[in-house]
Amino acid sequence: MSISKLNLKLHNYMLCSAAFIVCLIMFSHMAVSIVAGGVEHLSLGFLSEVPQMGGREGGIFSIIVSTLLILFICVVVALPIGLGASILISEYINKSSKLSKFLYFVLDILASTPSIVFGLMGNQFFCVQLGMGFSVLSGGLTLALMVLPLFITGCIESFKDVEDRIRYSACALGLSKLGSIKKLVIPMASKGIFLTIMLSICRALAETAALLYTAGYVTRTPESVMDSGRSISVHIFDLSMNVSGADHNVYASAIVLIAIVMSFNFILYMLQRLYIKMEGIMQ
């Protein structure tokens, strides 16, 4: 290895290390601030009671229920549509065709669209045009539309990591196109797919603007998907901006939100390992 290449490698290593340390310090500071501000107020009652006095007292049970319902609708809708669209674009459409380039362009535009735009669109289409009103269903469907570009793009990149020689070998052995996708491409791209699901769920859980215009502000427990519901992110926003004397519940709610995100990431990680073990995939 030449001196110039060694210096470049050392420079990149030092730059990445410095960036990692800075990010770690910033994240640690935020995490310590949140935990210190809310850990004293975490209790079983906080998780099992509904908000009272505008959120100053009580818990966030109804908020958690609304959040999980919205997330469930989002995943159930986005997962099959996103996976199917990514397979179509990656495996069936010619990568050098104008249609493929146009679809990539559209995905890039949608992925960079501000979430409040999706919220306004969801409000007009789901709440007004379809007559769903401010509801858990409207919020979940809007979030599904919002995370679809990210999910589709991530799955396409995962499929790209599967070498073409594997597809050609499967074809030479008489395996159909659909069979090779089902038996080879998807299992070998599963690591990237699960990672994309994690990122999509994290974005959906952290979303506020889109849900303000679709799911609503109501703090009561939704009895059906047609009832209005408040997500944790919206709850944190409302308490911090509109309710005085509720800082302790803001931090406690933030801890719960972080715990939910980490729990979903852990569950998906274990499901990925189980899937790899069942399929016998070499990583």
UniProtKB/TrEMBL annotation:
Which is an annotated GO molecular function term of this record? phosphate transmembrane transporter activity
PROSITE patterns, per the entry: ABC_TM1 (PS50928)
Q: Where is the ABC transmembrane type-1 domain?
A: 64-268
Origin superkingdom: Bacteria
Coiled-coil intervals, chain numbering: none
Instruction: Report how it sits in the membrane.
Output: Multi-pass membrane protein
Q: Which GO terms describe its biological process?
A: phosphate ion transmembrane transport
This protein's major location comes to membrane
Localization, UniProt: Cell inner membrane; Cell membrane
UniProt entry keywords in alphabetical sequence: Cell membrane, Membrane, Transmembrane, Transmembrane helix, Transport
Q: Which family does it belong to?
A: Belongs to the binding-protein-dependent transport system permease family. CysTW subfamily.
This one is known as: Phosphate transport system permease protein PstA
